[in-house]
Amino acid sequence: MIKRYIKIFDGYRKAYGTAELKNAKVDPDKGGKLVLPTGDYGWTHKELTEEVYQKHLDGILSIGIQACNENSEAKFGVIDIDPKNYVDFDRRYIIEKIQEYKLPLIPVLSKSGGLHLYLFVNEFILATVIVSFLSNLLPLFKLKSSNEVFPKQTQLTKDPETGNVGPGQFINLPYFKKSERLAINLDGTTFTFEQFLEVAEANIVNIEDLKNITESIEKKDLEGVDSDFDDGPPCLAHLSKIMKNPGFDGKDRFMYNYHVFVKMKYGADNWQQKVMNAPVKYFEAVHANAWDKQTLSAKVRSWSKSEKGYTCTQSPISDYCKKGICVKKKFGILAGSKGSYPVLTNLRKIDIEPDPEYEFDVTKPDGIGKATVYCKTIEHLTDQRKRRNSIARAAGFPPPIIKGAEDQTVLETLFNTQTIVNPPVGTSPKEKLHDVLHAKINGPKAMNDAAFKSGTVLVEEGYAYFKFEKFYDKLRSKNWKYTEDKTGVMMKNNYKNCGIQFLEQKRFPTKEKGKYNTPTKNVVSISIEEFEDTKINHTTITHNTEIM
């Protein structure tokens, strides 16, 4: 049975995630979510073997995997439902929707007390296809478009220097000990391990199935919808069905986005009348009356001057977003002269001291493909012009220029997806600096003034003395990218407890007739206590945002 389990949960095999569960605690501030202390989870950079899978099922080692492989393909995906309040979380609605729409999703109880909805595919396909399919299901479950869908990464990136693949984020696998994180039936009862394998295998789909299911859901959801929306954003079609519900809050956003739609579809001569008729057509009477002719006329005048597109990131539009479908519509988010700002997500802060670097994913114009965008500094991320150039370079298209308030919304939405990624062990600037300094202090010692002058270390009374410029040259030979002054600041900050001093005047201790006869030199001095006969230990800290 282990081989059947591996077959459905196959993915990236060169590393796997682990979680130490014995210290898990219920967090009342997070609605009863089960959380793990930092350090009890993280990546193990070893081959994911059958033995590792077996340890998980035996309850020896809790593992998680990256569903996306090196070829940007996946065989399974997950909708991660992380409710605000775990204690009061009612799974019945989710299960009923799965049943109503006959979805090939297997609901599994998550480690934290939420719900994971698993999708299994018969072969490796582009991970973006799986993510797009699952993302289009989010409105069905009343989940926001920002809800997490795995694989979080649909393209694994390589370190340009080492060539090592960054595995991204893992998802904890079900059936730990074969008795925890169990799949549940439509009636709420749990499946045994054997039953789960049978149910999962019976629900395996192919890529054509995904297409047909998407079309079937859309057809069902659009029953009774005005045909006027057939070639427009699905969110507007769905909203038009519920606008008459008393107390629905979102009519202003609907009207604004409706005007964007009809302006593109009917042109300058006819869109205004469509807007004027919309409240009577789509709102209940009491709200239709609130949008009187005077109010509507003022809106039309204002919107006539506007060239903005859809507000995809704002509720309730975002709550019913099906971007993968919308991009295919004639008057969807990619229509219009300026187009819509692309979706930016999965922000990774590469925690390099003192200057973190950043990566994020951008959705390509087809609405499915994604590209990874690299930002060397925080300014390359937050500055719209620099970010625009980075997107164009990585994805092959420049996003439209947007106003400051809209750009702020884009950034806030992106930062809500942020995770912290530590650089590979031994590659951070701090570690590189320590490695070179450690080697310097424990290397050859100056036995004469000429050696001292050339950069060799003089050790005297528990302190090491050396010329900074020679040390900096050695750093540069190790692909060091920081300037001399910045390197000096880093050394002062990192080794202030070692009594480090710069520009200290020091002679080589050679005396003739009781006097020093060598010239003084500007050097760095530092206590050797922390370096002498020590082993360099690099520590990897994995943040809790890397695990779900």
Describe the structure concisely for a colleague.
The chain is α+β, with helices and mostly antiparallel strands and 548 residues long. It has helices at 2-8, 50-58, 92-100, 127-137, 193-202, 207-221, 234-242, 251-266, 271-282, 285-290, 293-304, 323-326, 378-382, 384-395, 404-415, 429-441, 449-454, 468-476, 484-494, and strands at 16-19, 25-27, 33-35, 41-44, 62-65, 73-81, 105-109, 115-126, 149-150, 171-172, 344-350, 357-363, 370-375, 419-421, 458-460, 463-466, 501-506, 511-512, 515-516, 521-527.
Key terms for this structure?
4-stranded antiparallel sheet, alpha+beta, 19 helices, disordered C terminus, 4 domains, about 550 residues, about 15% strand, DNA primase, PRIM domain, about 35% helix, flat
3D structure, described in words:
The strands form 6 sheets. The chain has a 4-stranded antiparallel β-sheet, covered by helices on one side. The chain has 4 domains: 2-216, Alpha-Beta Complex (DNA primase, PRIM domain); 222-326, no CATH class; 344-421; 429-527, no CATH class. The chain has 19 helices and 20 strands. The protein is α+β, with helices and mostly antiparallel strands. The chain is flat. β11 and β12 (357-363) form a beta hairpin.
Instruction: Name the quaternary structure.
Output: single chain
Gyration radius, rounded: 30 Å
Cα end-to-end separation: 25 Å
The level 1 CATH classification of the largest domain is Alpha Beta
Strand proportion, as a percent range, falls in: 15-25%
What is the CATH fold-level name of the largest domain?
A: DNA primase, PRIM domain
- The helix/strand class is alpha+beta
Give the helix level as a range of percent.
25-40%
Q: What's the average pLDDT?
A: 82
The CATH architecture designation of the largest domain is Alpha-Beta Complex
The largest sheet has its strands arranged as: 4-1-5-10
| Morphology | flat
Residue stretches low in confidence (pLDDT < 50, at least 5 long) are 534-548
Number of helices: 19
Number of E strands: 20
Tell me the number of structural domains: 4
Report the major sheet: 4 strands, antiparallel
